[in-house]
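Fold this complex.
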Amino acid sequence: MLVQHLSPLASSLFSLLAIACLLLSFVMLGSRWLNNYLYAFAAESWTIAALSAAVGFYGSYPELYLIAILTLLFRGLLLPYLVWRIIRRLDVDREIHLFLQPSTSLIVGALFVMLALSVSFQVSAELHLQLTVATLALTVMLSMKLIGFLILALRHEAVSQILGLLVLENGIFLGSQILVPGMPLLIEMVILFDLLIIVACFGVLVGYLMTHAGTTSSLELKRLVG
Amino acid sequence: MMVGVLILTLAVAPALAVIGCLASRRPRVAEALNLIASAVSFASAMPLPFLIDGQQLLFWNDYIIMDRMSAWVILCTSIVYFLASIYAVGYMRLLNEDKRLCWFYALFAGFGLTTLIGPLMNSVGIYWIAIELTTLVSTFLIAFERVADSMEAAWKYIMVVSAGISLALLGTILFYWGGSFVLGPSYKMTWAVLTDAAPQMNPGLLKLAFLLVLVGYGTKVGLAPMHSWLPDAHSESPAPVSAMLSGALLNTAMIGIVRFLGVTKAANLGQLPQLTLVAFGVMSLFLGALFIVQQQGIKRLMAYSSIEHMGVVALGFGFGGALGVAGALYHMLNHSLNKSLMFFGAGIMMRAYGTKEIALIHGVGCRFPTEGALWLAGAIAITGAPPFGLFLSEFTIMRAGLKPPFSWAVYVMAILLIVIFIGFMNHFRIMYYQSTQSEASRGGRLSAWCAAPMWLSLVPLLVLGLWWPTHVWDYLTSIAQSLNLGAQ
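Structure:
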């Protein structure tokens, strides 16, 4: 188990990077401008790439360097670029209709973090891992998951929903680097598959635009009910 | 050895069809290729259950598993794939989309491929990836008609299912984490390894992980309340795709839940895993019943019926015991056959009357004497009335649950099934016997490609309802033993 014998320096570095990711997802939650979402997402991916490299270095898992590079390339550069192109083409730069004001959604997000914290305290108490970086990793993983769902539920623009989906997966990605750095093969595959999902989303989106001409808000998706 | 060759042909045939369809670019060639591929897959899946005894067989460095359960689910899938491919030849010609037809068949064969290989995955993580792949391929099939409705359905499908399935990934990672306390930081997570390590894993962590996995794959299975994508996707895709989604895809995702249930059973987690599965099952039945009674769209009616039947299957596995598991697996086969028949019929009616509204379809019996009779028989079968297969399997599942602690669920299930029977039959009464106008003209002749698969699904359904062979019974109960679900 990596987290049980970590040097204090390594463990505080991991904590710093994990908390930075959590803060960046709050940036996404608190803004209504699509560009801000995008920059926050890109920064989050870079932080996760740095975390992979750090875990690879301190835990001596050389394959994590490869994952760090792949993360940086795919999630940090290619995906944000593709999303940026879509934003530019769509001519939508912010969320028009909001269920909750950004300030309210920040508070709801904070409540979610508390929920995640209490769950991960329970789990790490059962595993006798209190006060290690594992608790923090689990908290950040669960709360980024919850915040991702919050973004999916509160935001209506297609682009924000894609980014919400990516935050969901960033959370898992971050947690798995710290909790199960030895997990074979899966993580690399997940990077590639995310990319495929996004490509598929874009395919659907483009087709959708062709038929609907204009709107990309999920508020307009109400033909199919009952 | 023989089994290995069969698995290889099973997967290679549709893969070649994908390449062939994309290379040839001619619609007639593409439909022939897909049909041949599905026939080959069916022919190689058919003998598999006979060749496998109690042991599980592993191939390719333990990445491929072939046990009695995968053989059974693959058989269900390949039947639906074969029937839907025959039907697609007739149906897709009606759409006048000849230019894009090679794309359709390439995607269709790809969808067949991903649903066939899903149950074969021995690595828990790669199983997740296989399920994710089915989502990617089927999104484009749902969006194939490119009208606003099907784009909306495809968008909801990919959003809801990817979000849901990411919960399953989280659960999978927590399972791996739990295992890493027992087996060291790096190990190969296969179903067998996980089952062996489960008794020493932390029960609290296992419960959390199982619930996440159940909700995640449950989204893909269409258990209520995670079902919201299902009616849209099933009603807006072309009819052969609806049949595949309902008869093949849902089973492929269900098998993951069942294997994880086996893991938790080995870990002795008490009632919780089965209780949640039963609760989801009852909820699906309840929701299915509500929406079936007041439904207005013909394909949405079939979609809600799929939610209902997946609820029944979940109840079967939740009740557990030899009876419950055998009933649930038998129900999978019956439902695959029957739901294909229902979607085939619904597709024909939709094209003939030019509408999806039940209220606008009338006089089916006069206009289509043969197909109408087949479809009506299928409707009787799908509500669980004798003498068809679903009656036997539903009855077995109810018998399995009658002991405490789940007997309440059986009573609820019985009441809801009666409600569904009445609601479903009422819709068919309107379509067959309520003549609003009296023209009742004989419609144009249907191609044999559309009628043949309806026969091919109804006849086995009737046989399975009249005769449940002892060998099949022994086969299914041995699956219950191998999953640790044998004793309740």
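Chain A is about 75% helix and 0% strand.
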